[in-house]
Design brief:
Layout (H helix, E strand, L loop, with lengths): L13 E5 L4 H12 L3 E6 L6 H10 L4 E5 L18 E4 L10 H20 L6 E5 L16 E2 L6 H9 L7 H24 L4 E7 L1 E3 L5 H4 L3 H9 L5 H5 L3 E5 H13 L7 E4 L2 E3 L1 H11 L18 E2 L2 H9 L8 H13 L1
Parallel strand pairs: 1-2, 1-4, 2-3, 4-5, 5-7, 6-12, 7-10, 8-9
Antiparallel strand pairs: 9-11
Length: 343
């Protein structure tokens, strides 16, 4: 573990992590605890964090505490739980994959603004990290060349499609999810520009995240949960609807959040979590290579390739500053996933 020089948040500082029971959030918590920080994690009920609380009590005694926020849209929802925090990682969002705009986009925006308002009213907060997604920049378009995505890229198309596509369209829920991430992040930057609070905002934009599932009871519906289902021979029709795209290790996503919270040179940045491209046949080929004695489903029909390119210079700077030479490979990420589920 690399020592963090001139950290914005001194070691031992308290960080509030919203939606801490989620797959990505649990990896953010893990990296914060591993690097000497204290974490207050929220969930809609204490039971949703019970297994993770036991894990972290055993591994990092006295450094993680559970806080219940039943409704992130309620006025003042975070006002009490944020007290004493030096940093905030707002990860809680709507992941129902409903195709109804008002059920997904509206609460995503409202929850984000609620957390920002609470931070603005809390003098101890120095950094705020919003978990966005690469879909706030673009939904992957297979076999299309010349797409380059940087910190100025926004998926404005998703907002229109989320509002206008018929509910019978099988891709509608994906566009609604993308709109929720796009609009919530845009609302966050607008809040910062208009209110000029005392803290710094950074955003982390992960793509398909693969890694250890810390709590199978609550995280089976995550991206890694879907991949594990394929490992176990279940071919969900939903997988065929997911285009080729980028993957990223959950470890690296945890580190990117950590860097956005504590590294002084990372300010007002949109940081992509895009290690490399994959499709389901890449995953199946990796399964067969790593676990040759196991039988896996047949390959999917050719889905093409994601030919887009992302500006990952800020991401790689963070990883290097935290002692990592670069991205974890898809093989390492899949080993992390399968090992956690078969141990």
């Amino acid at each position: 573990m690399a020592k963090i020089d001139n950290a914005v948040l001194p070691e031992g500082s308290l960080v509030l992590v919203t939606g801490a029971n989620g797959f990505v959030a649990s990896h953010v918590v893990e990296q914060l605890l591993e690097h000497g920080y204290k974490v207050r994690g929220t969930a809609r009920s204490a039971s949703k964090l019970a297994n993770l609380q036991k894990r972290w009590d055993a591994k990092y005694p006295g450094r993680f505490e559970t806080a219940v926020v039943e409704d992130m849209l309620k006025q003042g929802a975070y006002d009490e739980v944020i007290k004493g925090a030096a940093g905030v990682a707002h990860i809680a969002s709507v992941v129902s994959f409903s195709n109804k705009y008002d059920e997904v986009v509206t609460p995503a925006i409202g929850g984000t603004l609620n957390a920002l308002r609470a931070a603005a009213a809390t003098p101890s907060v120095k950094r705020f990290v919003l978990t966005s997604s690469t879909v706030s920049a673009l939904i992957p378009k297979p076999n299309v060349e010349g797409i380059y995505l940087d910190e100025k890229s926004w998926n404005l198309e998703s907002i229109d499609k989320a509002k206008t596509l018929p509910e019978s369209d099988p891709q509608k829920s994906l566009w609604v999810y993308a709109a929720s991430k796009t609009e919530a992040e845009l609302a966050a930057w607008k809040f910062m520009d208009e209110n000029k609070p005392h803290f710094t905002l950074n955003a982390v934009l992960p793509n398909y995240t693969i890694g250890t599932i810390f709590d199978p009871e609550t995280q089976s519906g995550s991206t890694s949960g879907w991949m594990m289902s394929l490992f176990n021979g279940e071919v969900s029709p939903a997988l065929a609807l997911m285009p080729p795209q980028y993957y990223v290790s959950a470890v690296d996503i945890g580190l990117l959040h950590l860097g956005c919270l504590v590294l002084p040179q990372i300010e007002r940045r949109r940081v992509y979590g895009t290690a490399g491209t994959f499709d389901w046949n890449t995953v199946l080929a990796t399964f067969r290579k790593l676990y040759p004695s196991k039988t896996f489903p047949a390959d999917f029909p050719d889905q093409g390739q994601d030919l887009s390119k992302f500006d990952t210079a800020p991401s790689l700077e963070i990883l290097k500053s935290l002692g990592r030479p670069g991205w974890r490979s898809i093989e390492e990420s899949i080993k992390d996933l399968v090992g956690s589920e078969t141990a």
